[in-house]
């Protein structure tokens, strides 16, 4: 697998809960979690199809992105199994913004928000071929 | 041996803070990383921890499906093992698969790295089946020789968790050997037990691998040191512990039902046998933020 060169970086009020949610709802896998006094200093999660996200606790004030409000952001993830993933995400408590649908550009997917409000879109469209 | 990991806030009791010169001095640091692809079949989890300023006490190392390696960063890990609770101390220890708790005594300050090893890891890292270690707590140098000392020395010098984990990766990968894996039937049986959290029936398991129950029992015990039924008990117990650690902790009756115990009394008896206390006492006793949360446990509802 090629090295991941782009990492969305997110901030959460309750980063522990966010990690649990991303694992339960989207099948992300915890790769590294560094904690100090219950604060998540840094965490990396891998997406099942490759790529990943980094996140940390909003309580971490020394972060260069400390001004980014927690629960902010929008991430698009390519998936081969949008239907199964949709079911899983909804079962885990994701808030549906746009249900499963086929787009006129040939993608099938959906958009949900996690408990703190970050938007997560999933679809079969994998970007224009380079 | 078991359970050094991140604090679960709902489980933890209030830390005993040390008031020094007017400041509250507790340190509570954990770091978890997924082992590299090379180590992953052997090492299921790698956790670093540093606790300071908590009160002296004991920590219960509970039975689990993993062997445990504990590498100390400064003071040795003090254990009270066996029925007679013989005290011992190790800078690098290996705890085998056991069906009783191992007690860790601490003075409130602890720092180390814990590795959860798969039974396959016992073969690849130590060149021995897990049964050869049995339920004992051994010094790591009995198993990997001078590399244990190297590990401890280099860990103490590592400035960050990232650096310390790199040392673990380096020293352990160098020792990965080629003791051929156990018979495929045994690996299959272990995997089935693990993925069902001990709820697969042993008679069905024997049928699936095509052996008699008796033959499976003997071969299994020779590899893992536990009989299939004992491994099943430990795995079911582990699942119950995992459920009890989840936020919004489910009731004991619900946990008992979810794990396949007849009833709550059955769950309590199993806890008395395997943990040496009822679940409520365990949840109340763990003072250190020590109780690990198994985020990596897949498939929990």
Give your account of this protein's structure.
The complex is a heterodimer of chains A (130) and B (301). Chain A is of the alpha/beta class and 130 residues long. Helix content of chain A is 17%, strand content 38%. Chain B is α+β, with helices and mostly antiparallel strands and 301 residues long. Helices cover 39% and strands 21% of the residues of chain B. In chain B, α4 runs antiparallel to α5, α6 runs parallel beside α9 and α9 packs antiparallel against α10. The N terminus and C terminus of chain B are likely disordered. Chains A and B meet through α1 and β2 of A and β3 of B. β2 of chain A pairs antiparallel with β3 of chain B. Chain A: This is VOC family protein.
List the helices and strands and how they pair.
The complex is a heterodimer of chains A (130) and B (301).
Chain A: E1 9-12, H1 15-26, E2 29-36, E3 39-46, E4 52-57, E5 74-78, H2 82-91, E6 95-102, E7 108-113, E8 119-123
Parallel strand pairs in A: 1-4, 5-8
Antiparallel strand pairs in A: 2-3, 3-4, 6-7, 7-8
Chain B: E1 19-20, E2 23-24, E3 27-33, E4 43-52, E5 57-61, E6 67-72, E7 77-81, E8 86-90, E9 92-95, E10 102-106, E11 110-117, H1 119-126, H2 130-133, E12 137-139, H3 141-144, H4 146-157, H5 161-174, H6 184-195, H7 202-209, H8 213-224, H9 228-244, H10 252-259, H11 264-274, H12 279-285
Antiparallel strand pairs in B: 1-2, 3-4, 4-11, 5-10, 6-9, 6-11, 7-8, 7-10, 9-12
Helix pairs in contact in B: 4-5, 6-9, 9-10, 9-11
């Amino acid at each position: 697998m090629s090295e991941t060169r782009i990492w969305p970086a997110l901030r959460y009020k309750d980063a522990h809960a966010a990690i649990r949610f991303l694992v339960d709802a989207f099948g992300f896998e915890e790769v590294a979690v560094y904690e100090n006094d219950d604060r998540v200093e840094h965490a990396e999660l891998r997406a099942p199809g490759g790529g990943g996200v980094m996140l940390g606790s909003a309580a971490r004030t020394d972060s260069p992105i400390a001004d980014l409000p927690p629960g902010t952001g929008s991430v698009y993830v390519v998936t081969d199994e949008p239907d199964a993933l949709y079911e899983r995400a909804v079962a885990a408590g994701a808030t549906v913004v746009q249900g499963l649908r086929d787009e006129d550009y040939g993608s099938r997917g959906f958009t949900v928000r996690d408990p703190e409000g970050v938007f997560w879109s999933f679809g079969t469209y994998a970007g224009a071929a380079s | 041996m078991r359970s050094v990991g991140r604090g679960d806030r709902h489980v933890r009791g209030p830390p005993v803070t040390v008031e020094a010169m007017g400041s509250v001095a507790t340190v509570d640091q954990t770091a978890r990383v997924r082992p590299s692809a090379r180590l992953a079949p052997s090492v299921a989890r790698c956790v670093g921890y540093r606790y300071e300023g908590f009160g002296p006490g004991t920590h219960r190392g509970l039975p689990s499906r993993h062997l445990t390696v504990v590498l100390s960063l400064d003071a040795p890990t003090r254990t009270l093992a066996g029925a007679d609770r013989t005290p011992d101390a190790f800078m690098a220890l290996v705890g085998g698969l056991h069906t009783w708790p191992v007690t860790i005594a601490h003075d409130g300050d602890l720092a180390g790295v814990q590795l959860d090893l798969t039974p396959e890891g016992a073969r690849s890292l130590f060149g021995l089946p897990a049964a050869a270690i049995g339920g004992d707590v051994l010094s790591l140098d009995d198993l990997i020789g001078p590399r244990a000392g190297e590990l401890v020395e280099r860990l103490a010098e590592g400035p960050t968790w990232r650096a310390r984990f790199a040392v673990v990766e380096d020293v352990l990968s160098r020792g990965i050997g080629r003791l051929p894996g156990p018979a495929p039937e045994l690996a299959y049986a272990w995997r089935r037990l693990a993925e069902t959290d001990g709820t697969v029936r042993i008679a069905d398991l024997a049928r699936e691998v095509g052996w008699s129950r008796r033959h499976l029992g003997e071969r299994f015990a020779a590899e893992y040191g536990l009989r299939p039924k004992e491994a099943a008990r430990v795995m079911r117990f582990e699942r119950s512990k995992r459920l009890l650690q989840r936020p919004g902790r489910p009731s004991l009756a619900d946990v008992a039902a979810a794990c396949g115990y007849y009833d709550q009394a059955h769950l309590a008896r199993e806890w008395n046998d395997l943990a040496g206390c009822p679940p409520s006492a365990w949840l109340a006793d763990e003072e250190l933020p020590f109780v690990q949360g198994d985020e990596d446990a897949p498939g929990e509802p």
